[in-house]
Amino acid sequence: MKTTVTINLGGLIFHIDDDAYGVLHSYLIAIERQFANEADPKEIISDIESRLAELFTETLGNKKDVISKEDVAKVISIMGEPQDFSVEDEQTNQNTRKNMSTYQTTKRLYRDPDNRVLGGVCGGLGAYFNSDPLLFRILFIIIFFGLGSGLIIYIILWIAIPEANTTAQKLEMRGEAITIENIKKAVREEFENVKKNMKF
Fold it and tell me: Which position has the higher pLDDT, 98 or 163?
């Protein structure tokens, strides 16, 4: 008989056995230590927790209710260890990343809040199809003036497509793997962009 613990991870409730909880707790503490000196550590940790919650939901499926130590090990192999991404020893880190389990994320359609004129629909379509959002903007204008339905289609898409609010969702929108390294890199880039925009 094993003791189980109920945890809240990324806003979702999970039941996890005691051994697995110890491993996961140590992993999250290591992540907090690794990113303590970053520009926005809370956002990085929040995005990592959200991604962990998604992976645990996928791993559990309908088969079982309790997260095991093996499930935690599988998810950690997908996300990567926090020490793999320290700046000090970049050469060693590259070798470690090659050995890390590869996990292909599926690309999802989101509205892009960072590249929007109105609702971010064209920015999201551009990111999803790896093309310039300007092409979609021109297409909607042509449909609007040619058929008269461009605005209605745009409004429907604006309502139907969710906005990419978190770093993990922005990575998923571009089809990039949602790993600790990519989340950290995306948050740094976002922070640098905000700093540039604040300069007068």
Answer: 163
